[in-house]
Amino acid sequence: MMAKNFVRLAVVCSALCTLLMFNGCSSDEDKEPNITAAEGLFINEISASGDDWVELYNSTGSQKDISGYRIQDDGDVDYELPDGTTVPANGFLVIYCDDTNTGLHTNFKLSSGGETVTLKNSSGEIAEAVTYPKLDNGQSYGRYPDGSDNFAISGNTSQGSSNDEANAPAITTILRTPTVPALNQEVTIQAELTNTDQLSTVKLYYSFEGADYTSAAMTKVGNYYTAIIPAQGAGVTGTMNYYVEAKSTTGAVSYKPFDAPADSYHYLLNNDALPALHVNEIMASSTTCCPDDDGGVDEFDDWIEIYNSSASAIDLSGMYLSDDLSDPFKSKIPNGVTIPAGGFLLFWADEQGSQGPLHMNFKLSKSGESVGLFYIDGRKISSKDFGAQDDNKSFGAFVDGGSTWQQFTSPTPGASNN
Ligand SMILES: [Ca+2]
Ligand SMILES: [Ca+2]
Ligand SMILES: [Ca+2]
Ligand SMILES: [Ca+2]
Predict the structure, then answer these.
(1) Among 44, 64, 96, 203, which residue's Cβ finds the most Cβ atoms within 10 Å?
(2) 228: CA distance to ligand 4 center in Å?
(3) Which of 231, 242, 135, 152 has the alpha carbon at shortest distance from 190?
(4) Which residues of the chain carry a pLDDT beneath 70?
């Protein structure tokens, strides 16, 4: 995964360098030929998050046979379209990038972070290449109008049909301040949009504890459309759900999250007493110490030990671990994870969630950073900043749960440090 991303990054960089180099040249002969555009065939729309697909558009009045054409992303492999593949006159053809490797289904997927899709003709010449940006679920990158040189991110997709009707402003980012609201505190929601030429309205919708959604117009302040969710009153606890809607003057609508209101963002107003849990010991660089338990293969991964100093078992379901104290919701602890009274539990910081519920989606930096345990509402339970670490030595509290930390040459993963 890392290696693949690195290769992709390298390819993007080299493509970018090439582009910059061509920009500096005045000679036309350095430019890539755009064979299909001349032929009226276009990569017209790309979806790369959730469902990955590429839509081709034929702007001419006659059917085009593209048997043997090849399509490729930034990876090393390309995919040959089968015999008999055609794009109808003034019509569209969808190629599904779902890694199934048959018919109109390619042997690769697309990166939601952005990359280049290349179409080659049956002679292997590059017919067209489109570099798309980061895309979220429900968004696509396409030509407006169909077959033109004007690209935009749309908050709506139009797989297999004209882009024009679907063109909607796209909501790229949503921010919440504060990240972890206290009881009876107002909360500011900010939305960043792109493709706003035809923007009509931006609205925030919010609902507390399952009530009907209330809408609030979002007004542009700096780069962001902004609205406020009011404070809910002293002592009021519960769940606030919210989402953002953007409408174009043509009536096209987009949402974030894209399938709102079925899906929404939320925060929790909560005043539970925080549990007696402690970040107790960490390992940030292991080569020989204490491998994890995945499938009998020794993996010398980073880990975090949590200590329950109370006299009762504690259920950690829905709490969070993070290596960034400003991003408490980084890695959610799944349901069913408990620590017995006075007990210890090891979490693996290995970015290998498929290895089980105790595997978190971050690693610890040998050069030092922070690790925190956060409650279900994002409030901090326990955290520790640490400096540069030596291989195979841990850093932990002595005594368990205490505030004085030291290096251990004999780590005690899952057991007392005392
Ligand atoms: Ca389309
Ligand atoms: Ca590490
Ligand atoms: Ca592992
Ligand atoms: Ca320990």
Answers:
(1) 44
(2) 45
(3) 242
(4) 1-38, 295
Other residues' Cβ atoms within 10 Å of the Cβ of residue 354? 7
C-alpha of residue 195 to centroid of ligand 4, in Å = 52
Tell me, in angstroms, the distance from the centre of ligand 3 to residue 357's CA. Answer: 11
Ligand nearest to the CA of 363: 2
- pLDDT tens digits for 272-308? 999 999 999 999 999 998 888 776 788 999 999 999 9
Beta partners for 385? 370
- State the pLDDT at residue 291: 87
Q: Cα–Cα distance between 76 and 8 in angstroms, integer?
A: 9
**Domain 170-269, what architecture?**
Sandwich (2.60)
Q: What is the pLDDT of residue 25?
A: 36
Peptide bond between residue 291 and the one before it cis (omega within 30 degrees of 0):
no
**80-130: per-residue pLDDT in tens?**
999 999 999 999 999 999 999 999 999 999 999 999 999 999 888 888 899
- Which pLDDT belongs to residue 165? 85
The token duo for 305 is 């030990």
Answer yes or no: same fold for 32-166 and 277-408: yes
Contact indicator for 116, 95 with CB cutoff of 8 Å? no
Question: In a 10 Å sphere around its CB, with 0-12 CB exposed, 13-18 middle and 19+ buried, how is residue 131 labelled?
Answer: middle
Q: How far does residue 59's CA lie from ligand 4's centre (Å)?
A: 67
Measure 4 CA to ligand 1 centroid, in angstroms: 29
AA letter at 150: N
The architecture CATH gives domain 277-408: Sandwich (2.60)
Domain ranges across the chain: 32-166, 170-269, 277-408
pLDDT of residue 17: 38
Q: How far is the CA of 56 from the centre of ligand 1 (A)?
A: 8
